[in-house]
Write a structure and sequence with these properties.
The complex is a heterodimer of chains A (about 110) and B (about 450).
Chain A lengths: L4 H18 L2 E2 H11 L11 H10 L3 E7 L5 E7 L1 H30 L1
Helix pairs in contact in A: 1-4
Chain B lengths: L2 H20 L6 H20 L4 H12 L2 H11 L19 H21 L2 H4 L9 H24 L3 H20 L7 H22 L9 H36 L5 H27 L6 H27 L9 H22 L8 H26 L1 H4 L3 H28 L5 H29 L4
Classes of the chains: A alpha+beta (about 110), B mainly alpha (about 450).
């Protein structure tokens, strides 16, 4: 099953924020975590994560810092900020509303 | 394939990919590094799973996605990157950071030197705005050009001998300009004030090309530099005008007259310092921002061609002769200067290897019509030259007219050959470049020889 493009794009922000809320991370690890969490159903084009991260950084929802990887190369680590957590909470509520609504109508369809 | 060979070819592939990514304007160096780190992480995981290096690379690149789409996304997030920015201070961690700081310091010191130099004569009682304007007019180029030359001498690392020669040129100019007993308000004085900067610009040029005038493409770079500096100088002057206006206006609001400050300090010091700062900006931005002079050339070549052709047609149709007045010769000189400038700057931006196109035909038309217009004007002037008699102004203007006419006739000839496929564009470029010193040598001739010959009138 492949998710629609719009849905993937819409879910990118809450997903990235939620993963960063678990702890600081970097691009490749975030992609891996997304694949893991979705059981491989959510396939992002790897490169596309970075414009998303940069946009969040611009909006002040995440902060970035250059650090070192295990192999000694420079690597950019991302951390969620306080406004980022607030945004995550807001998004959580919005998605819950969507989820509840859809659930409601589909339950009716099943029982009817 | 051995492990090390596999590794080497992988590194090579990654290097290619990195170069390919770097060429995209929306993706900056640090982004490339971040994406490369991702690619390497992916490749490492895949090779651990048993894939060969190049297989892993192919998969990792595929997963990275379409680079066009990626750079579009980057451009949406960082839209400012599509506007080339002139960043004077390099990125943090850049190795050239220290060098750039030193350069900033050198430029600031030299700009201050140039700005203060124009105030030095005041210490000896020569007041700007106090009847000593002729002195300042004569020496205008001697305040800013030496610091400018010093900047390039420092930047290009000129050897001591060249530096001494350049300093001697300025010293000779200073002596000549001030030792000649000019008549007040005389023609030769005005000619000296006008021609000394042109003569000395060649000295700046020698420093600009690092003392090797005849080697490499340095001279054409100097032409490009001159055009850009002119444009930057005009822009800085506009800003300076706004600054001056506000200064006077604000102090007037609290009942104080700041005009002495504006006229005695801001305008003269700013005009001198701006030469150095403008030169530095041109140097700093040459690889960052599109050159403006060739753009203006492209814009105005068709317009000037049209005006000249219409002028010729009107003159032929009505039969009106040129009314030879005092200013006519100078006006036609300026016209030729302008056309030479248009040819020079379109040559400076053109790829010499490219085949002739419509714009080249337009250039030839422009040059040819300018030559015809000027020949008509010269004929009219020559017919009445006996009536005028020889004054220094007229001889200088005639000399300049001839120099420019020869340049344009040569250009027209070479353009025609090029368009007919008998010659290369490089020949035209060489002609223009070889001609550059002629202007300065003639200007020096006017400065050195004219005053004594015409009795300092």
């Amino acid at each position: 099953m492949e998710l629609g493009k719009d849905l993937v794009a819409a879910s990118a922000t809450p997903l990235v924020l939620a993963i960063l809320a678990e702890g600081d991370s970097y691009g490749y690890a975030i992609i891996k975590r997304v694949a893991e969490l979705s059981g491989g159903h959510l396939q992002w084009t790897d490169g596309m994560l970075y414009p998303v991260l940069h946009r969040l950084e611009r909006q002040g929802l995440v902060a970035a810092k250059w650090g070192a990887s295990e192999s000694g190369r420079r690597r950019k680590y991302y951390r969620i900020t306080r406004p980022g957590r607030a945004q995550l909470a807001a998004q959580q509520q919005q998605w819950q509303v969507v989820d509840n609504t859809l659930r409601g109508i589909w339950m009716q369809a099943c029982t009817a | 394939m051995t492990v090390s060979a596999d590794r080497a070819s992988l590194e090579q592939q990654i290097a290619h990919w990195r170069e390919y990514l770097r060429r995209r304007r929306a993706i900056h160096g640090s982004d490339v590094e971040e994406l490369e780190g991702h690619l390497r992480d992916q490749v490492a995981v895949l090779t651990e799973a048993g894939l060969a290096g190049d297989e892993a690379f192919l998969i990792a690149v595929k997963r990275m996605g379409n680079l066009d789409a990626l750079s579009r996304e980057f451009a949406r997030v960082h839209s400012e990157r599509l506007w080339k920015q002139l960043v004077i201070t390099p990125e943090v961690g850049d190795q050239s950071e220290k060098g750039a700081r030193t350069e900033t310091l050198v430029v600031l010191v030299l700009a201050v030197v140039a700005a203060l130099a124009i105030k030095v004569p005041a210490l000896f009682g020569l007041q700007l705005g106090g009847g000593d304007e002729p002195f300042y007019a004569r020496n205008a180029s001697l305040f800013a050009f030496p610091p400018l030359t010093a900047y390039f001498a420092w930047k290009r690392g000129l050897n001591l001998v060249t530096c001494v020669w350049l300093a001697l040129a300025f010293a000779a100019a200073a002596v000549l300009a001030n030792a000649y007993p000019f008549e007040t308000g005389g023609d030769t004085h005005a000619l000296t004030a006008l021609h000394l900067p042109i003569a000395l610009w060649l000295v700046v040029g020698v420093a600009y090309v690092g003392g090797r005038w005849f080697a490499g493409g340095g001279r054409m770079d100097f032409v490009r530099f001159s055009g850009e500096l002119f444009i930057y100088y005009v822009l800085i002057a506009l800003g300076g005008g706004v600054l001056t206006g506000f200064t006077v206006m604000m102090f007037a609001a609290i009942g104080m007259n700041a005009e002495w400050l504006a006229q005695g300090w801001i305008v003269p010091c700013g005009a001198m310092g701006a030469v150095i700062v403008g030169a530095w900006l041109v140097e700093a931005k040459q690889s960052v921002i599109e050159n403006m002079a060739p753009v203006l050339t492209r814009l105005f070549t068709p317009l000037f061609t049209a005006v000249l052709l219409v002028f010729l047609a009107t003159m032929a149709w009505t039969g009106n002769p040129i009314d030879v007045k005092r200013e006519v010769l100078i006006a036609f000189d300026l016209l030729l200067v302008l056309v030479v400038g248009l040819v020079l700057y379109s040559a400076s931006a053109r790829d010499p290897e490219a085949p002739p196109d419509l714009f080249d035909r337009l250039q030839l038309l422009l040059v040819a019509s300018a030559v015809v217009v000027d020949a008509v004007a010269l004929a009219a002037i020559a017919a009445r030259i006996s009536e005028f008699g020889f004054t220094p102004n007229r001889v200088a203007a005639l000399g300049e007219n001839l120099i420019l006419l020869v340049n344009l006739a040569g250009s027209a000839w070479l353009y025609a050959r090029f368009l007919r496929g008998r010659g290369s564009f490089a020949a035209l470029e060489r002609w223009q470049i070889a001609y550059l010193p002629v202007y300065s040598v003639w200007a020096a001739f006017v400065v050195v020889v004219f005053p004594p010959v015409f009795g300092f009138r």
